[in-house]
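A favour between colleagues. Tell me how you read the following sequence-structure pair.

===
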Amino acid sequence: MRIARTLTATATTAALITGATVLGASTASAASYRCTTSTKSIDHPGYTINDNFNFSVKTCAKREGGYIYAKAYVSVDGPWGFAGQSSVHDARALIQVKRSVSGPDPVSKSAYGTGLGSKLNNLDAYGNTSYTSPTVKHKAAAGSRYLGDSVVQIDWKNDGKGRISYSFSASPTV
């Protein structure tokens, strides 16, 4: 008991010196996102040479305060020759909170993130860009496990196929 009081007093003194706040040992910190990163090389169907877009999508979820939060980070390494060129009609990210069950996981809540098309049409000089989706928030049911899932949907120029969906790996369950 004496050691615990000494450690607490030392931490309090250090906090006063640095201006930090000391929280009790039982205080929980904010939940961290649990993430899975997956990659996919996607051929631009409207062109025949030097046209692969390499996507890396980090799909994340966390449980905090009775809610599930999901979001995705998209990194694109496009063809160098596409920098500054308009290569898509539209693109968006579909972010989903899914309840983890045996069999297909049902969608509990989802949202489309806008702005990905603009990012793909405005690659930097190296053909790269990045995008962060909006965060989806869902009230968690007691005893249920959830995960975040993401899909990139792209309507490529010059292919006439409309929007094509590309699925990426889901986050770990939370």
